[in-house]
Amino acid sequence: MSKKGVIYLFIFLIFSSINSSIAQNTSKEIQPLTDILTGLEAQYNINFTYVDQTIEDISIIRPDKNFSLEELLDYLKTYANLDFILIDNYNVVISKRINPLSKFITQKLEEIVITNYLTKGISRKSDGKTTIKTEDFGILPGLIEPDILQTIQALPGILSVDETVSNINVRGGTHDQNLILWDGIKMYQSGHFFGLVSAFNPYLTTDINVSKNGTSVIYGDGVSSVIDMQQTNSLDQDFKSGAGFNLIHADGFAKVPLTKQAEIQLSARRSVTDFIFTPTYDQYLQRVFQDSDFSNSPQNSTQIVSNNERFYFYDIAAKLLYDITDQDQIRFNFSTINNSLTYDQLSIADENVSLTNTLEQNNFAAGVQYLKYWNSKLTTTAQVYISNYDLIATDFDVINNQRQNQENKVKDLGIKINATNHIDDNLKLHGGYQFNEVIISNFEEVDFPDFTSFVKEVNRTHSIYGEAEFTSADKNTYARIGIRTNFIEKFSEFFTEPRLSVSHKLSNNFRLEFLAEFKSQTTSQIIDLQNDFLGIEKRRWILSNNEDIPIIKSAQGAFGIHYNKNKLFISAEAFIKNVKGITSRSQGFQNQFQFVNDIGKYQVLGIDFLINKQFETFSTWLSYSFSNNNYTFDNINNNTAFRNNLDVRHAVTFASTYAINNLNLALGFNWHSGKPTTLPTEVQNTANSSIEYKSPNSTNLSSYFRTDMSITYKLKFGKKLDASIGASIWNVFDRRNIINTYFAEDENGEIVSIDNLSLGVTPNISFRVRF
Fold it and tell me: What's the number of CA atoms in the CB half-sphere (13 Å) around residue 462?
């Protein structure tokens, strides 16, 4: 299908769906309780807090619009058969009717500062983190499915300078400084299609918690942020499944009760790119391979040709839940993520010479967790896991008759023990121990001239932590304070990391927030050469050796003020972040510092601003982020500060979503100033074999601008069967955004500029069914 055909279909879906929605009269129809609650929040200016499983599959007749709040809650209690507890004038907690026999498992919900933050399914908590519930997820511009790592980039202060989910920059940090967890297991691969699609299937990943600062001491690593993804941990006793496809991949999932005490959850996804050529795949292909060995650089384009490419990806995840007793639960997890690329290189001079280049990327994870509910106040958990990452490439240079093999392998073995004690309704204590053994190896082999390099590092870390969470009796003040101590065996060093999160409600409308933390991490990614791993996956994991690769340490703080009234939310948060122990090899320099090894630091000063207005069927928001991000290295640039490679000074997003009945529409605009770049000097010294450059990062690329739109429509076929169709267009106006520029010498010794471009106009269509 052509791009124009997809766009015409998109417009047709919009108008046909609107006409269908207008024709429906739902005033007296039975509707899902989740949909009804959304409208009631806007009508009564209240927030409903609940566990998803509590209200799923419950449908009632929409209550009378003239009900008082008291009459409304009585009506909901009667017809939904649930408890609706009014905490204050603005917050209502929904819970199941208490069973006196279930005395062991109690759940205390964190207070939600704002629901439907940006769109349905995203909420902001009192401890500063943002939670995304994929089951309740509405719609965002350019997305027709709840892509986890694309979704979090809608939050202020989070973006990707190259549009990928494998390079997410949180407040000016590099991607390796994000701690990405899947059911408590650290993941070293985050993207499919080499960064254009999240590697985590969203349909069994029910909760995603994102913390930019003030994180809990339960988490180690991640000096920039924590992205904690959780699958459901409770038995539903109800079979659920679904399947769908879009122009890139097909997937399916199932939750299957085995007995009253056991359930298995399965999900699988595979690309269709090696079977079907679509306009979406065409754009992805151009974006990923535009600056790689596969795309033929100017130096060899007249001598070799690449063909017979075969690319695909898949992921499989499984979780077994078994409740031994009401007090004892055991959980088994398994996940594998894979990207595979092969293509042939054929010499034009000798057509008989054809060699196959390969690239394999895989992350395998498995774990077991035991939960013990000792009583209604004390809970303990113990988890053992392994996370294994492999990146393997074979690259043939047909012209020079050379073969290069590269490998980057990570093995992470972890043990976590945690205890939580609810002292009373206002105080909760956490404490625990964590052990990690991380083994990282890097191998490189060239057959002509003969060269072999193998480096293997091992690190073991022991951590203990303690934390207290306090909520005042009037619910106006929340505080979490904790301390974590890490002991690194290899260096015999202790690192103590205090962390703090405090919020206080000045009135019913204003809330103040203060967040602070110290963190450290021993794993990072470097870029040795721009053609590492065929030039497609340029980053490789390494371990700190406390010499030329130090331990990365961070200290950051933030102060925010938030206003929330009548579904109008205004937020401003100022922050400072200092990170030291970074290496120049981890920053991706492509100027005079590309082959320089040095140790340095960076400091970010900035502010995140958001204004979000919600109506019953409409939500619109404007976010603005300002940041000033500067490097200082020991030897580079005479120890003088200069702009960070990720110094995006200004970033603006304006977007709106519209939801009525089964129709969801979204339109959004994204703009940010261009990232810094370094230009060659006008006059080059011909005696110098390398390019001479001006002051580092003294020039900006042109600004980035993108418009996205999307639409989804739900179809209801019965109580257990429903479907949805969707269409989206990424970069509607096909703007030519330059996301990176570097310089090289051509065969004649002339300096040429090489531009990396963003995705062009990229349509997508999806269809899903649930039963």
Answer: 7
Best CA proximity match to 427, nearest among 376, 377, 485, 476: 377
Give the Cα separation of 351 and 162 in Å (integer).
Answer: 37
Rounded to whole angstroms, the Cα distance separating 53 from 681 reads: 63
Q: Tokens 């920053």 map to which residue? A: 587
Query: Which residues make beta-bridge pairs with 59?
Result: 32
At residue 705 the predicted structure's pLDDT band, cuts being 50, 70 and 90, is very high
The predicted pLDDT at position 396 comes to 87
216, 430 Cβ separation under 8 angstroms: yes
Q: How far is CA 52 from CA 57, 236, 262, in A?
A: 10, 11, 20
- Pseudo-torsion of CA 741, 745, 748, 750, nearest 10°? 60
Closest residue by Cα to residue 398 from 363, 357, 427: 357
Spatial distance between the Cα atoms of 669 and 730, rounded to a whole number of angstroms: 10
User: Tens digits of per-residue pLDDT, 715-764?
Assistant: 988 778 899 999 999 999 999 999 999 998 887 888 999 999 999 999 99
**What residue type is assigned to position 21 of the chain?**
S
Q: How far is it, in rounded angstroms, from Cα 755 to Cα 585?
A: 21
Tell me the CA distances in angstroms from 323 to 3, 326, 331, 381, 724, one per residue in order. 51, 7, 9, 14, 34
Q: Tally the residues of the chain.
A: 771
**Distance (Å, rounded) from C-alpha 138 to C-alpha 643?**
38
CA–CA separation, 253 and 236 (whole Å) = 15
Nearest in space to 268 (alpha carbons), one of 343, 330, 335: 335
Quote helix, strand, coil % in the chain, to nearest 5. 10, 55, 35
Distance CA 161, CA 644 (A): 12
Max CA-CA distance within the chain?
87
The partner residues of 475 in beta bridges, in order of sequence, read: none
Whose tokens are 């995203």? That residue is: 122
Of residues 182, 112, 105, the one with CA closest to residue 148 = 182
CA distance 672 to 453: 41
Rounded Cα gap, residues 361 and 338, in angstroms: 6
Q: For residues 193 and 150, what is the distance between their CA atoms, to the nearest angstrom?
A: 14
Contact between residue 647 and residue 628 where contact means Cβ atoms under 8 Å apart: yes
Closest CA to 331 of 146, 204, 188, 211: 204
Among the residue ranges 62-76, 119-133, 662-676, the one predicted with the least confidence is: 62-76
> Which domains are assigned to the chain?
1-98 (3.55.50.30), 230-770 (2.40.170.20)
Contact, 526 vs 543, CB < 8 A?
no
Q: Which residues pair with 618 in a beta bridge?
A: 658
Whether 391 contacts 404, CB under 8 Å = no
**CA separation, residue 490 to residues 413, 458, 463, 583 (Å):** 16, 8, 14, 20
For 23, 33, 34, 456, 662, the CA distances from 65, given in Å and listed in that order, are 21, 15, 17, 67, 21
Find residue 565's DSSP bridge partners.
568
Determine how β-strand 91-95 pairs with β-strand 47-49: parallel
Tokens of 714: 């739900």
- Measure the CA–CA gap between 276 and 1, rounded to whole angstroms: 11
Report d(CA 476, CA 485) in Å as an integer. 31
Q: pTM of the entire structure?
A: 0.86
Distance, in Å, from the CA atom of 503 to the CA atom of 514, rounded to the nearest integer, reads 6
The secondary structure of residue 735, as a DSSP letter, is -
Please write the tens of the pLDDT for every residue from 301-311: 455 566 778 88
Q: Cβ neighbours of residue 36 under 8 Å, at least 6 residues apart?
A: 60, 62, 63
Q: Are 382 and 432 in contact (CB under 8 A)?
A: no
pLDDT value at position 77? 84
The answer to whether residues 630 and 641 touch, using CB atoms and an 8 Å cutoff, is: yes
Tens of pLDDT along 571-607? 999 999 999 999 999 999 999 999 899 999 999 999 9
